[in-house]
Design a protein that fits this description.
Elements: E1 4-8, E2 11-18, H1 22-30, H2 32-38, E3 44-51, E4 59-65, E5 69-81, E6 85-92, E7 99-108, E8 111-118, H3 123-150
Antiparallel strand pairs: 1-2, 2-8, 3-4, 4-5, 5-6, 6-7, 7-8
Length: 151
């Protein structure tokens, strides 16, 4: 299954349903050992994450990109309602403006629908972000499938 990705007027939306319980999908967003396995674009060869799962806590990810180097996403958690909602303000090296990100986790049968929105995204940067989230969601799907197969 692929992600449904759209972009319009500075707002990126990514929607995907994962074949995993909502708690497992939410945990994959806040447990550093799991985030480090899926975060980032296809060129991310390593990710170091620092997550403080509370409102006002850090949500930082340093990606090492193949043939590019380090790329830092810094964030501050603005909403934390496990296992239904995670929101944070994101800052990165390309866009120094605040980009609010909201991730909703919705139960759908035995699976979980994830709806991500990222606001204040510059048009010139949107294509990179679309591809990055799509790759990350694909890696997340593979990790969740592996976890489900083991359980």
């Amino acid at each position: 299954m692929s992600s449904d990705v759209s972009y319009e007027n500075g707002r990126l939306t990514v929607i995907r349903t994962f074949d995993a319980p909502r708690e497992a999908v939410f945990d994959a967003w806040i447990e550093t050992s799991k985030v480090q396995l899926w975060w980032g674009c296809a060129y991310a060869i390593q990710v170091q994450s620092e997550i403080e799962p509370t409102v006002g806590g850090k949500f930082n990810h340093l990606m090492k990109l193949k043939e590019v180097g380090d790329y830092l996403h810094k964030g501050v958690i603005t909403a934390y309602e496990p296992p239904a909602l995670l929101a944070y303000d994101l800052y990165d090296g390309f866009n120094h403006e605040r980009m609010p990100v909201r991730v909703e986790f919705i139960e759908e049968g035995l699976g979980t629908k994830v709806c991500l929105t990222q606001e204040n995204l510059p048009d010139s940067y949107s294509q990179f972000v679309k591809v990055g989230w799509s790759a990350g969601f694909e890696k997340l799907s593979e990790i969740l499938e592996q976890e489900t197969a083991v359980s």
